[in-house]
Amino acid sequence: MNHPTAIALRDLTKQYGSFTALDHLTLEIEEGSICGLLGPNGAGKTTAMRCLLGHIRPTSGSVSLAGKPLEPATFESLAYVPEKSALYEAMTIADHLTVYRQCYRNYDPVRVAELLAMFKLDPRKKVKKLSKGQRTAVMLILALSYRPRILILDEASSGLDPVFQRTVLDLIIDAAANGATILFSSHQVGQVERAADRVAILKAGRLVLDGNVDTLKGSAKVVEAIFDGSVPELNGLASDARITRIERSGRMLRAYVNADSDGVARHVQALGPRNVAVLDLNLEDIFFNAVGADRAPVIGEQ
Amino acid sequence: MPAFFTVDPRTGVPLYLQLIEQVKRAVALGTLEPGEQLPTVKALAVDLTVNPNTVARAYRELERDEVIETSPGRGSFVRRNGTVALESRRNVEDVAATALAEAVREARSMGLDPDRVRALFERALARWFPTEGSL
């Protein structure tokens, strides 16, 4: 299980004037892992990715890929799919592929042909004639054309239909199954829940939650208790390190727990409720719990 | 590729646990037979659109539980080693225990007390084992 670190951001801070886009962000991703980067708009996801790619210089801190700081050779095995199209409108798909074939030693024409067929794309078409989905497909094909070891995708499937989104996930999974390390940001928790083994949640430039998705699901629970009268005084619960948040409403107590839910349930049981239940949380619940309960602005945006 | 594996990533149950349960169930029910080969980690990950490390984790635990065995270069197989009957019996119990625990948890989360749950269990027992159900 001890794979070497493929992607590392160490104590990364990025200031724009008085605005802090990244605030001492440290994140290390193991080789072969798929890490989903979640966070509300403006949380710093794109900034973190662009620091990794060398597009912007951090105010302090460092990045490394495959154990080394960014150097020209890194780009041979690093691919990036940005949120907005980075293609040349007047060029054909084939023109773009020619450039990549000349730039990358590992360019794999067989893989490219497979992917073109999969997306039913005619390489003779000019970019300006392509739909949004087709443009994304071309960017994915270019990114995968040289079988990169590290793949970074920024909202690659946003605004695309569900079938296309699934295809993007399939390609990410296929790349990871072949040993690539992937960092992808998304507004869709469900995508991360399905494809990622690792999740990192940013809020206001800070890492607020980071871990293995299954491990988080295994430990993050809600202990829910219903009392016959009002909820009694919570002796010691408010300062219990296992509890991240407590909600009380009427006769109901809900304690969000990040470890030892059975122990917390026993503790709550001692308060004499009518009923105590330990409920599972899915990643969406865990996400909202980490970034705060302010739901409306996060979901459903593109 | 066996079509009987399905997972639901949107629940709170970790995916690798869902996979473990599915494989155990398939072995217990005989849909996966002793000696039968399982899909590779990569094939199953791609087939289900789930993370390869998650599938690998499920396979590792299944191996530790002696449900499957993996030989390097050949793949993973349902264990066949003379204790199949015992294994499969244990697996049946695992699967049943998980389903029962789920039902009890559900009942509790809806506010039923232990006596009510016990009564429901007795009723279910009486329904499916008409002659021996009443204890």
What can you see in these coordinates?
- The complex is a heterodimer of chains A (302) and B (135).
- By secondary structure, chain A is of the alpha/beta class.
- Chain A folds into two domains: 5-215, P-loop containing nucleotide triphosphate hydrolases (Rossmann fold, 3-Layer(aba) Sandwich); 221-280, Alpha-Beta Plaits.
- In chain A, 30% of the residues lie in helices and 29% in strands.
- Chain A is built from nine helices and 13 strands.
- In chain A, the strands form three sheets. Chain A has a six-stranded mixed sheet with strand order 5-6-7-3-8-9, sandwiched between helices. A four-stranded antiparallel sheet of chain A has the order 11-12-10-13.
- The radius of gyration of chain A is 22 Å and the shape is elongated.
- Chain A starts with a strand and ends in an 11-residue tail after the last helix.
- The model of chain A is unreliable at 294-302 (pLDDT under 50).
- With 135 residues, chain B is mainly alpha-helical.
- Chain B folds into two domains: 15-78, Winged helix-like DNA-binding domain superfamily/Winged helix DNA-binding domain (Arc Repressor Mutant, subunit A, Orthogonal Bundle), CATH 1.10.10.10; 84-128.
- In chain B, 57% of the residues lie in helices and 6% in strands.
- In chain B, α2 (41-48) crosses α3 (52-64).
In short:
The complex is a heterodimer of chains A (302) and B (135). With 302 residues, chain A is an alpha/beta fold.
CATH T-level fold name of the largest domain in chain B: Arc Repressor Mutant, subunit A
Question: What is the CATH superfamily classification of the largest domain in chain A?
Answer: P-loop containing nucleotide triphosphate hydrolases
CATH architecture of the largest domain in chain A: 3-Layer(aba) Sandwich
Helix/strand-derived category of chain A reads alpha/beta
Question: How many DSSP H or I helices of chain A?
Answer: 9
What is the typical, i.e. mean, pLDDT of chain A? 91
Order of helices and strands of chain B: HHHEEHH
Count every beta strand of chain B, where a strand is a DSSP E run of 2 or more residues.
2
